[in-house]
Design brief:
Chain lengths: 115, 112
């Protein structure tokens, strides 16, 4: 299947700093990418949907000014957690839609720990 | 998208078949059944999907009841590496532009 990568795979940062997570579709063009968050022992929760070249659509309860999403190209979407706090510590997972295959493929996830 | 119900956990002996059930009694005629799994600290992995016919691939088999209100994912010879959370998701196939909604899933523990 198609490959989606995320970088970094894990990051530790101090409270108040910003962290950028990249999501790339390696062998297909993704017009739509999704960002999920997963807390320990819980299921994945959708945070936002991003379409290339337009503003992201955020789920209820997700602060758009805190979780900045940029989907500037068909192979790259970024999620920036601004002014991170310990409660933002989580496993962040992106997925990308391969329109040609009508499928969604997931990245390996990024584990964020905010001290 | 229709809601699904799965048992929270199951055990299976290594080498035996793992049968994971899923109820989706409110499924619509144009909704497919998708199965994904998530191994600890990894992103979800696609397994299989189907509409009404049984499906088989190199990973698993999917059995869908005639009324489509439930399905079973079968791992024919479970290995320790199949230990994961398995998610059953119902969705209209041509809505790949829409997100996947994950429920609680079934935590499968394959034991030696």
């Amino acid at each position: 299947g198609a490959v989606v990568s995320q970088h970094p795979s894990w990051v530790i940062c101090k409270s108040g700093t910003s962290v950028k997570i990249e999501c790339r579709s390696l062998d297909f063009q993704a017009t739509t990418m999704f960002w999920y968050r997963q807390f320990p022992k819980q299921s994945l929760m959708l945070m936002a949907t991003s379409n290339e070249g337009s503003k992201a659509t955020y789920e209820q309860g997700v602060e758009k000014d805190k979780f900045l999403i940029n989907h500037a190209s068909l192979t790259l979407s970024t999620l920036t957690v601004t002014s991170a706090h310990p409660e933002d510590s989580s496993f962040y997972i992106c997925s990308a839609r391969d329109g040609g295959a009508n499928q969604q493929f997931f990245g390996p996830g990024t584990r964020l720990t905010v001290l | 998208d229709a809601k699904t119900t799965q048992p929270p956990s199951m055990d299976c002996a290594e080498g035996r078949a793992a049968n994971l059930p899923c109820n989706h009694s409110t499924i619509s005629g144009n909704e497919y059944v998708y199965w994904y799994r998530q191994i600890h600290s990894q992103g979800p992995q696609y397994i299989i999907h189907g509409l009404k016919n049984n499906e088989t691939n190199e990973m698993a088999s999917l059995i869908i009841t005639e009324d489509r209100k439930s399905s079973t994912l079968i791992l024919p010879h479970a290995t320790l590496r199949d230990t994961a959370v398995y998610y059953c998701i119902v969705r209209v196939a041509n809505n790949a532009g829409n997100m996947l909604t994950f429920g609680g899933g079934t935590r499968l523990m394959v034991k030696p």
